[in-house]
Amino acid sequence: MKIRRFVFIFVLLSVSVFLMFSGKVSADEETNRKEHYAVLNLTGSVNAVSADYTVKGINNAAKGGAQFTVLQLDTPGGMMEPMRDIIKAILSSDVPVVVYTYPKGARAASAGAFIMLSAHVAVMAPGTEIGAMHPVSPSLDFMKKDRDGDPEGAMEKKVLNDTVAYARSLAEKQGRNVLWAEKAVRKAVSNTNSEALSLGVVDLIADDMSDLLRKLDGRKVNIGKRSITLSTSSLEAEFIAMDWKDRFLNRFADPQVIFFLFIIAVAGIWMELKNPGMIVPGALGGISLLLFLLASRFMPVNAFGVLLILLAIVLFVLEVQFISYGLLTLGGVVAFVIGSMILFDSPLAGGRLPLESIVAAVIFILAFVFLVLRLGIKAHKEQVSTGAEGMVNSECSAYLDFSDRRGKVSVHGEIWNAESDEIGIKKGDPLTVKEVRGMLLVVNRK
């Protein structure tokens, strides 16, 4: 009984101590969490991968007790849906989100400008710029205007007006210059950091992170119906970086990378089909194809653009095999350029291929087809000179004396069984291979 009582008391004390210290640790952790702010970094195009990282970072920062989140921004633009996901996360955040166009020389263009408009506090570093929010799409023509100066096409009007309304609503919600937001969309205007401050587009200009913290200290920020006063005097920065998986995927969430992955995949698989057993081109093409399919999940790929590029490559190959006096090549170039231009379709800048990349790809494909494939076709047309068939008409010598017109010969350093219509063949006699019958050579004297 005493032993049982002792065990019971020991277990009870152990549980009590555990609960006491676990509660103390949790309280300490809660205290520590309130003494920091989170820092995210959105660099490069706005895509599904970078948006997922940013959204998770904003949400985790709020859950982790950060007083506010700083989103360092440097982007030329990106895709509409990922941009909207980031903006939704900012507007629904329980703690203030400071969007900081940083470092010096950075830009908040197109999608980046929308994100700046949605910030609770919008800040720019010296030498940065903001704007150019006009929708851009290779499948839409915004150049044709009607009498009122608006786009002529119905779809162009729809996209433009929707983008304008979205920009105006963000600026209105955060108390920023609504007229500037509309001009940035309709006329694609851009402004420097000082101009943006004077126009009421951003709230502050800060040289660096230290200067930013000084200027944020004591600032009141409205989040919904709440007013929060920021205190930055004793805060530590908690940097939230992309994990290895997101960094890896983000490298492939780029139109140019996806485009060249597709070209390499087609070229590699084609070479393997034309020359089975080469292994390296097939493996490289297969890996590139898988990466292309993976990357196409993060950026919308136009299936018609893919088909046009495949048609162009088929026309290039036909030009090698048939004489069309350049007509097939011309058709292939036209199909390739059009397919490349519509391969990615985004209503914002940053989701299309530069003309330089398209021209470089055309040159690469033409060089590949007319040099590599022409050599391959020529080789297929030539007489086979390897293997058993390649031994026909080869010189050899009798390895031993023939017996009853049968014996062994030495050819290409190998010993083969042989027979001959001639008699009296002696060891060392020079011979010529006339025919190959399975593993038997038919020879005659030279």
Molecular structure report:
By secondary structure, this protein is an alpha/beta fold. It has 14 helices and 16 strands. The strands form four sheets. It has a six-stranded parallel sheet. Strands 12-13-14-16-15 form a five-stranded mixed beta barrel. A hairpin with a 7-residue loop joins strand 12 and strand 13. The longest helix is centred in the first third of the chain and has 32 residues, at 2-33. The protein is elongated and about 110 Å long. Mean pLDDT is 82; it is low at 4-13 and 15-33.
Q: Using the alpha-carbon principal axes, give the shape.
A: elongated
Strand order of the largest sheet: 8-5-3-2-1-11
Radius of gyration: 35 Å
User: How many helices does DSSP assign?
Assistant: 14
Helix content: 40-55%
Spans where pLDDT lies below 50 across 5 or more residues? 4-13, 15-33
Structural class: alpha/beta
Main sheet attributes: strand count, strand direction, barrel closure? 6 strands, parallel
The number of distinct β-strands equals 16
Order of helices and strands: HEHEHEEHEEHHEHEHEEEHHHHHHEEEEE
Report the mean per-residue pLDDT as an integer.
Answer: 82
Q: Into which percentage range does the β-strand content fall?
A: 15-25%
Q: End-to-end distance, in Å?
A: 111 Å
Task: Throw out a few tags for this protein.
single chain, alpha/beta, six-stranded parallel sheet, 16 strands, 49% helix
Task: Note the topology.
Elements: H1 2-33, E1 36-43, H2 48-63, E2 69-74, H3 80-91, E3 97-101, E4 107-109, H4 111-118, E5 121-124, E6 129-131, H5 154-173, H6 178-186, E7 190-192, H7 193-198, E8 204-205, H8 209-216, E9 220-223, E10 226-229, E11 236-239, H9 244-252, H10 255-274, H11 280-295, H12 303-321, H13 327-341, H14 355-381, E12 395-398, E13 406-411, E14 414-420, E15 430-437, E16 440-445
Helix pairs in contact: 2-3, 3-4, 5-6, 10-11, 10-14, 12-13, 12-14, 13-14
